[in-house]
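Q: Convert this sequence to structure tokens.
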Amino acid sequence: MKAETARKYAALKGCLSKLESVAVAFSAGVDSTLLLKVATDVLGADNVLAVMGRSPSVPVAELTSAATLTDEISVSIQFVDTCEFDDPRYIANSSERCYFCKTEMFSRIKKLAAERGFQTVISGANADDRHDFRPGRKAADEHGVRAPLAECGVSKAELREIAAELNLSIHDKPASPCLSSRVPYGEPVTPEKLRRIDDAETFLREHGFRECRVRHHGALARIETSPEQITRFQNAEFRDRVDARLRELGFKYVTLDLRGFRSGSLNEVLDTEL
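A:
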């Protein structure tokens, strides 16, 4: 581990040691998994609870992964059903959609933590998130949710380095944000659209696409994947197989984004001042 990363890892452990007990807002991504692991190491499993929201916006594979990861860390997990789809502001899918989702999630996690006697709610937000468009940060602040990784200046690359040092199985796992992030702002988000996206991305992962997105543009599916994987579509048989499966799921047109995978590409349409 690099010296600077080791210093931040020590700072992270010191930060967590000052907390009596924590409920970790868990997503099964590398950020919250690392935070959960370090919190468990520092505070002991009895003083740590992983809490994961469950709704149509969460990929099915992530729910399965969550149970596996908490077993790996030997810590308890509690799933809570969130109801963001009851909020018409969430369904309307403005650029503030994430705020409404996180408000719903953090309110439920905070309530559960209080009922179970866990003192502080913490999230896996890292230092790099401060430089991205993240409306959910406002919801975290409003609910008093701490972000120890960000507080200690731990970047995405550094937390992956720490996770590898701790032998976490998902240290190099690609990010998997909520399925609603595949729907362009202004187009309503529905459970039906998200199921279609999840099934399409699951199909691609089953065919070796480790990092990919299926953006939902009405009747059109726009596939983003790495430049290395784009070349696979030169094979007509494989191309036809992908086209047939996605049309079977309900898309009328299937396209490949030649710019390749870009995390948060739908944010490109937002005013840069956001």
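The chain is about 45% helix and 15% strand.
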